[in-house]
Amino acid sequence: MERAFWVRSAGRGDIGPAHVQQHAPDDVLVRTIFSGVSRGTETLVFRGEVPPSQYEAMRAPFQEGDFPAPVKYGYLNVGVVEEGPGHLVGRTVFCLYPHQTRYVVPATAVSVVPDNVPPERAILTGTVETAVNAVWDAAPMIGDRIAVIGAGMVGASVAKVLSGFPATRVQLVDADPAKAEVAASLGVDFALPQDAKDGCDLVVHATATEAGLVRALELLAEDGEVIEMSWYGDRRVNLPLGEWFHSRRLSIRASQVGKVAKARRTSRDYADRLAVALDLLADPGFDALISGEFPFDELPRVMSSLASGELPGLCHRIRYDG
After folding, report:
1. Into which family does the record put it (predicted)?
2. How far, in Å, CA of 50 to CA of 79, rounded?
3. What is the CATH number of the domain that holds 154?
4. Of 23, 128, 155, 258, which residue has the fewest beta carbons closer than 10 angstroms?
5. pLDDT, tens digit, for every residue of 13-46?
6. Domain coverage including residue 88
7. What Å distances lie between residue 195 and 33, 71, 189, 198, 209, CA to CA?
8. Is residue 238 part of a domain?
């Protein structure tokens, strides 16, 4: 009998027993060594704030239970294949699986972590995959002036990926001055919202706040576009869609990781997108997104502290001993 983390009710979670079924020849048995807490989405689930209209859209690939609770939810898991096809046994893999000590999934559901990517960093694969999809949606051009508003896990990952485009001006914008250190580690410029440079061709918004989205529109040049990555749950957002929104011919377009970006949908699949994310994670700069590490037994307390805002930081890594 293995163990897994469950959200039992809004704001309350615990670790309980988990049954691992006998696996078929084309399945793999994976022993988890690290998982990551996706701060934005997982705390929203933990607080019971997924709107009923999005219950199906928000399901994780290997979720058990239904929203609002009880539910086993998560998707940043790195482990070692203990049993399965010979070419995978002993390999370190990433899987979109919740927080659980061991699990069985089809072999096609795991991606081998390259030798030049430490397992500790590979928990970011799902987040960097989201960033890759956003950049495919945004389709930046050489020399673009770009702002990324929101230096959380997703926003910071997007800024890091965009910084590799030639001759671009990339600025990471956040209301928390402490995020300047994260930006410096990622190799991108930082600004507070009131100090951000305007005249942007492209703004990626990831704060999930009304104020952040309004500021994103303000920073755009004529014919500029906002790529909206925020998940607002059941909250409504008021925007000034008169004034300069029309006179500058601005656009707002959604990006969401559930589908491969339209620009690549006919030529790339989910496995291709994951592979790109894993290749990018060879860069040690992404370590700036990991704020701390806790043992698996402390996960209920960690989730509660993240949901209340008591525990700061970006991605918190969960360590599975033994």
Report:
1. Belongs to the zinc-containing alcohol dehydrogenase family.
2. 28
3. 3.40.50.720
4. 258
5. 999 999 998 889 999 999 999 999 988 889 999 9
6. 3-116+282-319
7. 42, 42, 12, 9, 18
8. yes
